[in-house]
Design a protein that fits this description.
Layout: H1 6-22, H2 26-42, H3 49-68, H4 73-107, H5 122-137, H6 147-155, H7 157-160, H8 168-171
Helix pairs in contact: 1-2, 2-6, 3-4, 3-5, 3-6, 4-5
Length: 183
């Protein structure tokens, strides 16, 4: 779905705003944001919502591991795993065709290159989840123990496609009043 399409402007966005504003609690607002974001990303290629979900599940759990083992070797292994998984995911989708094409040219091989569509927003959500784990490792943020809140941060469609990449520390809610003071 494109932001300038009539379906988005006349149906999807107004309906999303209406549902969001009718919700009274933050939990239901987050659920609405997640559902509308999944619909938005699934509009073109529904299968690739799995890549976003995979990245989110991996880094959510890595954040929990880093928090549990802060200062120990397990935390270091977890952050390295996050970097490898995220850059590997990005590499497979964005650069595998390029690499195989060059191997075919330089080595005269005929390795089959499958036509894989690029998941919408993959660079944004990959770097957002990665920045979360890096900030966790650096002890700059507190662990998010709610997957719903974490996935809302990762998947929120209005900012994810248009950018910029938002760090978790910039949206983290640390107080009951919802106001976070930056150090």
């Amino acid at each position: 779905m494109v932001f300038s399409s009539l379906v988005f402007l006349c149906i999807f966005f107004p309906l999303s705003l209406l549902l969001y504003n009718l919700s009274k609690s933050i939990k239901y607002k987050n659920i609405i944001l997640v559902i509308t974001s999944i619909i938005f990303y699934s509009w073109g290629e529904p299968i690739w919502i799995t890549a976003m979900l995979f990245s989110s599940i991996v880094d959510f759990n890595i954040g929990l591991i880093i928090d549990k083992y802060r200062g120990h070797i397990q935390a270091k292994i977890a952050i390295i795993s996050s970097v490898v998984v995220n850059l590997g995911l990005l590499g497979v989708f964005k650069y595998s065709n390029f690499i195989v094409e060059n191997i075919n040219v330089f080595l005269g091989t005929h390795i089959y290159i499958p036509k894989i569509s690029l998941p919408l927003g993959i660079s944004f959500y990959t770097f957002q989840t990665l920045s979360y784990t890096v900030d966790m490792y650096r002890n700059e943020i507190k662990v998010q123990k709610s997957f719903l809140k974490f996935f809302t941060y990762v998947s929120m469609f209005p900012q994810l496609v248009a950018g910029p990449i938002v760090r978790y520390i910039d949206i983290e809610v640390c107080t009951v009043s919802g106001i976070r003071e930056h150090p």
